[in-house]
Amino acid sequence: MANTTARITVNGEETPISPAAPHTTTLDFLRDRGLTGTKEGCAEGECGACSVLVARPGVNKPTDWVAVNACLVPVAALDGQEIVTAEGLATAGEPGMPPALHPVQQEMAVRGGSQCGYCTPGFVCSMAAEYYRPDRCAHADAGDGTDAGHGDAEHGPNGFDLHALSGNLCRCTGYRPIRDAAFAVGEPADEDPLAQRRERPAPEPAVTEYAQDGSSFLRPGTLAETLELLRARPDAVVVAGSTDWGVEVNIRARRADCVIAIDRLPELRELRVESGHIEIGAAVTLTEIERRLDGEVPLLAELFPQFASRLIRNSATLGGNLGTGSPIGDSPPVLLALEASVVLAGADGEREVPLAEYFTGYRQSVRRPGELIRAVRIPLPLSPVTAFHKIAKRRFDDISSVAVAFALDVEDGVVRKARIGLGGVAATPIRALATEAALEGEAWTAETVEAAARVLRGEGTPMDDHRASSLYRSAMLGQSLLKLYAQTTEAVSS
């Protein structure tokens, strides 16, 4: 029997999800209902033509408007939630008159940021999320929204962070008019209904049992219920942000008899800084981690802007990135350098496993059937010398050819401890153990670093593929350590 109680609020109107299949994306659900402003460009979360706003628990206010890729999120995952599309941003005009454009729509129009219009609704939704970000504030010398007065090329005088648009890739007008529109928007008006909505709590996660045509989408209410469900359904696909599973559904036509959503489980949504460690819940999104830690872990702060795009980071989680076991995920090298461990929860209890012992083979780990990653623990204190180097063909929103993370303790000119995490050079993310040994106990000098760089070039088993050759990957490993030394020598010596 179909479940007809699952519902979603779209542009202020509640509507049933039925009869959509459990694997139906939010993008297809919206388009089937005539909201065709939401477009499909790539179907894998890289172009942003599908972005919509979702009301989520806020960091600085009860609710944040968060932009997500509608092409990746199953609509069943939004049971009980509120979303706004590009059509819903405009406000009703006088009788007989067209709706009044939203401020971000107006600026995109008057500054020439839209040409064919295919990508524009996605840009507008991503811009609107940044427009409503509670801690966005104009500089004192902001002026009229032109370049004068802004701190750097990626931040406007109005506080607009261009990284908010890093997942919106169409550029048929060139990027300057779009940037000009972003830098021109002001503060939301007091009577703006979406700004007012931020003052009320976001919808609570709904316990969902949605079934159609023999397949189901389930969202249990507690971790204990989830673990019992996994014991009964070991074949189930577990999703958080769906940034990986959504690609499988769209590009490879994967289907699952049962999908279990864990992204809103309270037990997986905690972030605590304690005396001996930082514990990050497996379902806390990367954007939430970034804003809540606010630079407290410099190595993570360096990782986040280079991890996919803001649209992806608004949904992706550390638990998901580790759970997929991909050898080219960007977070594992960083967490390896930080000596992190994962807390695995099963119906029979919990256990903590060092991340260096977690991966056992290509997309394989020590996680047992029925177990979930509940949290990631980062021990304190942190090493003071850190860096994350991502080698990719694009500056942002790209898959790594090589990723290298460093965490070093250098005291009195001597390397007391070295931890180096590598991605993209083996079947799993790995620690560069031989290089760590070559550095520890040695003077932090050019001679030591050059010798260790030669060792680092031999770490792992890099392969040739369409992203890079094995020789290039090996060369980049050694070059990365030389770069770290060049960047940090002055800071270490001082």
How is the secondary structure organized here?
Blueprint: E1 7-10, E2 13-16, H1 26-32, E3 51-57, E4 63-69, E5 82-84, H2 86-89, H3 103-110, H4 120-131, H5 175-184, H6 193-197, E6 208-212, E7 215-219, H7 223-232, E8 237-239, H8 245-251, E9 258-261, E10 271-273, E11 277-281, H9 286-293, H10 298-303, H11 310-313, H12 318-323, H13 331-337, E12 341-346, E13 349-354, E14 359-361, E15 364-365, E16 372-379, E17 385-391, E18 402-411, E19 414-423, E20 430-431, H14 433-439, H15 446-456, H16 470-493
Parallel strand pairs: 1-5, 7-9, 8-9
Antiparallel strand pairs: 1-2, 3-4, 3-5, 6-7, 10-11, 11-16, 12-13, 12-16, 14-15, 17-18, 18-19, 19-20
Please give a structural write-up.
- With 494 residues, the chain is α+β, with helices and mostly antiparallel strands.
- It has helices at 26-32, 86-89, 103-110, 120-131, 175-184, 193-197, 223-232, 245-251, 286-293, 298-303, 310-313, 318-323, 331-337, 433-439, 446-456, 470-493; strands spanning 7-10, 13-16, 51-57, 63-69, 82-84, 208-212, 215-219, 237-239, 258-261, 271-273, 277-281, 341-346, 349-354, 359-361, 364-365, 372-379, 385-391, 402-411, 414-423, 430-431.
- A hairpin with a 2-residue loop joins β18 (402-411) and β19.
- The radius of gyration is 23 Å and the shape is globular.
